[in-house]
Amino acid sequence: SPNIPDLATPAGVEERLSGAFSVASASPLEISQTGESMDKAEEEKLREQLLIAPLPVTLTPSTLGAAASPGSSSGSPTAFGASLGQVFAGASYQERTRFTETSDGSISAGFGLGDARKYAGLEVAVSVLDLSSRNNDDKAFDRGSFSFKLHRALPNNWAVALGYENAIVWGFTDAGSSVYGVVSKIIPFKNSPAEPFSSLTVSAGIGNGRFRSEDDFNRDEGTVNFFGSAGLRVVEQASVIADWTGQDLTVGASIVPFRNLPIVITPAVADITGSAGDGARFILGVGYSRSFSF
Q1: What angle do CA 227, 233, 237 make, to 5 degrees?
Q2: What letters, b where the CB count within 10 A reaches 16 and e where it falls short, cover 12-41?
Q3: CA-based, 20 to 30 A from 71: which of 56, 91, 136, 199?
Q4: H or E element: which one contains 42?
Q5: What is the C-alpha to C-alpha distance for residues 268 and 253, in angstroms, rounded to an integer?
Q6: Which pLDDT score is estimated for 137?
Q7: All residues at 6 or more sequence positions from 283 whose CB lies less than 8 Å from its CB, including other chains
């Protein structure tokens, strides 16, 4: 495919939209109340019993007042997604498409349905896949698609999802339609996301379509392929990302430039190993998300 993967959920907003966060409850203390006075030893023992251990460290979508969290992927999907009351929009840019010297971009917007924490969430996204006019047959806004992701948040910061990219298309897509399954996990290292190197988010999945190797994609082989990503949160508002899209490696960063605005910027370099395309290319994603209560 000459273009970067079509943007469904903007990079960097998926962790914020997800409900894949859990807190385990402490076991209740059973305390006998006799009404009789206690001696000093009994009183001290009861005081020790009442020293309840703190809850396990967990991650929350909104941390220390920050409006968004940095992302963990830049091209491949994660298992996090939008639920009811959550909306997002984004744009992507590439300095050139594969095997050309022409720059291009895409825009997208979407919303969530359901509840990923209780049952399942359904993310719906619409994308405009071409923002430039290259010839009379390929005009801006003439191509686009609808994509869907069914996702579930699990205990201990796990999440799973099934997705269908470019399920409904107008015009055509360079990447075709792709069905995938993916599992994600947030691994906390520190008690607070304000601390350096506070967490690692990893995702692994399998899919057809654009996730196939470049040779299989060009020959239209009916194969599936592995993809995955890892995002290390180096500071509260920034992470570094390594993303294997199924065809090649993308390396980049995800940055939340403003604490009070849910905007995430993800600059990256795609196709750096040479296993696909014709050389490394600069790509850029910008995402915005909001949550509303009903």
Answers
A1: 120
A2: bbbbbbbbbbeeeeeeeeeeeeeeeeeeee
A3: 56
A4: helix 40-49
A5: 6
A6: 62
A7: 4, 74, 75, 92, 93, 94, 95, 250, 252, 267, 268, 269, 270
For residues 180 and 211, the answer to whether their CB atoms sit within 8 Å is yes
* DSSP labels, 213-241: -HHHHHHT----EEEEEEEEEEETTEEEE
Q: State the pLDDT at residue 30.
A: 31
Q: Which residues of the chain have pLDDT under 70?
A: 1-66, 132-138, 294
Residue 8 contacts residue 108 (beta carbons within 8 Å): yes
pLDDT for residue 144 = 95
Rounded to 10 degrees, the C-alpha dihedral 112/119/231/223 comes to -90
Enumerate residues 6+ apart whose C-beta is below 8 A from 85: 112, 291, 292, 293, 294
Q: Is the alpha carbon torsion for 191, 193, 195, 199 positive or negative?
A: positive
Q: Could you tell me if 110 and 261 are in contact, meaning their C-beta atoms sit under 8 angstroms apart?
A: no
Scanning the structure block, which residue is given the tokens 């050309």?
100
C-alpha–C-alpha distance, residues 270 and 242, integer Å: 10
Phi and psi dihedrals of 44, rounded to 5? -65, -40
Nearest-CA neighbor of 155 among 20, 283, 10?
Answer: 20
Type and span of the H or E element at 284:
strand 281-291
> Can you give the pTM of this predicted structure?
0.79
Per-residue confidence (pLDDT) for residue 10, from 0 to 100: 56
Task: Tell me the helices (H) and strands (E) count for the chain, helix number first.
Answer: 3, 12
Distance, in Å, from the CA atom of 283 to the CA atom of 11, rounded to the nearest integer, reads: 12
Q: Given the structure tokens 């948040």, which residue do they identify?
A: 153
Of the candidates 9, 8, 6, 13, the residue with the CA atom closest to the CA atom of residue 256: 13
Share of the chain above pLDDT 70, in %: 75
